[in-house]
Amino acid sequence: MTKVGYLLPTREKVMAADHSARDLLDLGKRAADLGFDSLWVGDSLLARPRHDPLTVLAAVAAVVPDVQLGTAVLLPALRNPVVLAQQLATIDQLSEGRLVVGAGIAADAPAIRAEFVAAGVPFEKRVGRLLEGFRLCRELWSGKSVDWDGRWRLGNAQLAPLPYTKGGPPIWLAATVEPGIERAAKYFDGWFPLGPDAPEFGRRQQLFAASAEKLGRDSNELTTALYLTVAVANTEAEGDAAVNDYLQNYYSMDPALMRTIQACYGGPLEQVLKFIRSYVEQGAQHIVVRVVGDHEKTLQALSQRRDEIG
Fold this sequence. Notes:
single chain, 310 residues, alpha/beta, TIM Barrel, 8-stranded parallel beta barrel, globular
């Protein structure tokens, strides 16, 4: 059965001028009690301010048992990989192996470029920084002494703690273009896009699986996940308007443009379920749902009809 996860609204709370964290933990507990398989948090410093994802995951790991925990998605290029390796290993220990690292390179937008400048990190060559950074993380997670001479320099360095998961937590790469999908198949444990429509997603899923097999990897051992935005409403017009308002407020960009990039749907529950199911039929193994509107009602509704997703 396809796994279904819930994205905690760290960004939405800050947008509503609510900087507390207690509700996030309560929502995580509620989603787990309703049978959701995983809990996720997004990442941004200044472009789309929110709670720090790794701190939130550490707290969730301590109070919510059993379910998987992940980033949707982390921007590792903003962080020193040695520090990041220690943080992720610690969360993996706290959660006893439940961590999944969804990661991306970040979109090319003025606010995100400014975010990189503020963090003191070059925006250019961020693909190389991501790849080298995770190679270094994995070396440090091996338990062996590490010598490294690249963007970062280490001599006879040994990290502790080691992750609970041998070799480190699985890493799923967010990618929409073909080179990125091929990188996911070559270097990582899964592919984690946020769209687009189901037929095109299916074509890209086939590329991901074929690329893995061509490289001698078993595509059945890799995960295809997907990030979907949904609004349950009385009518499609009402749901569509709710999604558009949400995207405008969240990104300060034209919702029509965002919907060419991200998979979004608003409407009656029957149609929301059909929308989600269309991606499952195209190969999605793990769905991460971002909720627009009433989170409690939406979580309950999806939970009650969980078997219909697939």
